[in-house]
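Format notes (please read before filing issues)

Several people have asked whether sequences and structure tokens are stored in separate files. They are not. Every record keeps both together, in the order shown below: the sequence lines, then the token lines. Line labels are part of the format and must not be stripped during preprocessing.
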Amino acid sequence: MPSYQTDWTGTRHRFADLRALLAAATPLRSGDVLAGIAAASAEQRVAARYLLADLPLSIFLNELVVPYEADEVSRLIIDTHDSAAFARVAHLTVGSFREWLLDNATDGAAIAAIAPGITPEMAAAVSKLMRNQDLVAAARKISVVTAFRDTIGLPGRFSTRLQPNHPTDDPAGIAASILDGLLLGSGDAVIGINPAGDTLASAGALLSLVDEIRTAYAIPTQSCVLTHVTNTLALIERGAPVDLTFQSIAGSEAANKGFGVDLALLREAHEATLALGRGTAGNNVMYFETGQGSALSAEAHHGVDQQTMECRAYAVARAFRPLLVNSVVGFIGPEYLYDGKQILRAALEDHFCGKLLGLPMGLDICHTNHAEADQDDMDTILTVLGVAGVSFVMGVPGADDIMLNYQSTSFHDALYLRAVLGLRPAPEFEAWMESVGLLGADGRIADRAALAHRPIPALAFLDG
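Then the structure lines:
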């Protein structure tokens, strides 16, 4: 493999290979420092970016950061690469690709047309040359629309995953959180439960609980219990009301093995869930979660920086046309993203790179209590991601997940973002909210005191 070097203010900076160059060009984050691959200085980081900017995009098809013969994710990236889509930008360098993305003449349709030709490493590389402002501006151009019972990702729309987790999977506690979220307009992306236990009986009971609520009030949304894909396959065989199959994924074969999955298993789950035919607005049936640092934490990063590895996870996701992809940014902890600034940068990178690759990107805007971050940081990230056109975020009661023990975004946070940016829920979900009186004449959530005096179906929520 070739090495890369440049003389910068009297110092020669040499990078052994493309992996080292990408790592050194990455904005500072604690995970890369932990891995021993971060730039040694700000000067070296700038030197790496100058070198990276002059590289042709085509180099990423020839010099792989994880060897083709050793990794099925690398084989997926190369074997599914769309050379016709890539031809439109094949003449560009990484730096000129950035300029093309930000050009006013380049719209969302043009970016969507090249998406099948962009590899994760290309996306990661161009993001490393971008300011935060650039990541917002470019991502905002792109709309990735998916559907199951309602339609997610349309321009001017903003959805939430209603996350009613409970430390003991208590059905009454979960039901109370679901109804609270519905009253506050949450849940159009999915009603998704992280189970505290991992038995098939518990997961099946939770799926039935959500399905009963959904069908009783004819709510146009989908449910998911975020259990391992093998459990979901078993639940499908038992006839459980499975809408979506969930799985955490990563950017290398070894890291995915750490999650207990490979591409063949994901393909089996995708086909089994599709065969159920439960969608009414579309047939996107997969829900994936990712997060910077997962490959490093599994000691399966192959010396590649955590942001590039994150982008490689998106290649896995797009192979299965998911309804939702959620970067759980900040969840792993300060060892990987140290503070609010690093979490913000990672959130913007993940969102932009995912959309550039053609994925319906959402964010779990979150932090653990031992990180150098607080809810003010989350407010800032939420607002900036809203401007960037994020498809969905989490709706957690009080922004405090009492089962997973981390801080996220609340039902009220989503209402704030819809109000200040003029955003609306998914159209089918919005129509349902109007039909049951949950939306006022001004398009905002109706006052609960007023609801209590109206003979509408929403009254059952208040009584329930």
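For reference, the curators noted about this record: The chain has a mean pLDDT of 94. The two ends are 65 Å apart (CA to CA).
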